[in-house]
Amino acid sequence: MSTVLVGKICWVLLIVGWYVIRYPFERRAKRRRVAATRRGRAETVRMLISLSGLGIIPGIFVATGLPRFASYVPSPFQTGLGMIALIVALVLFRLTHKALGRMWSVSLDIREKHELVTSGIYRHVRHPMYSAFWTMALAQALLLPNLVAGLAGLVGFGTLFFLRIGPEEAMMEETFGEAWRDYRSRTARLIPGIY
């Protein structure tokens, strides 16, 4: 089996793993009422950009090999690093969903009786879901040997992250006030002790 095929199969497993982890939380979230939301046109555009980078563009490459001009032959080492990043991304993703439980939301929503989650992986990082998605985008870049499809996740998710993080943190401060400010002061945004 070629290294290219191994990378493509691993990317598909990453997407399947992501969906299997997320699906039960998504179903449960539909049953809980939203008290406040920051969804709107801008959020829809951000989500579509992220979906394009992490799903549509790499999916086209995996299915068709397009765009061929941007393809290259990967090293087994690169693919191996991609497999490690894949595992780390899925573990982070699962830990994040487990810690959030009933408070999980796909977008900028505050649920009725929403509580500030500071336990589990949230003890160390304020936005471990974003850490998981950054790691997922890194895995994609390493697993898919195509400069367009591989890097699309970093660009697509990066766009969502940098345009969403400010409004999200403002919403959390507005909702939780001093509890949020205290939590923010003792935790990193994405990587403990670094950022």
Automatic annotation (TrEMBL):
Keywords: Membrane, Methyltransferase, Transferase, Transmembrane, Transmembrane helix
Protein name per its UniProtKB record: Isoprenylcysteine carboxylmethyltransferase family protein
Transmembrane segments: 6-25, 45-65, 77-95, 133-163
Record-level GO cellular component terms: membrane
GO biological process, one term: methylation
Membrane topology: Multi-pass membrane protein
Subcellular localization, as worded in the UniProt entry: Membrane
Record-linked Pfam families: ICMT
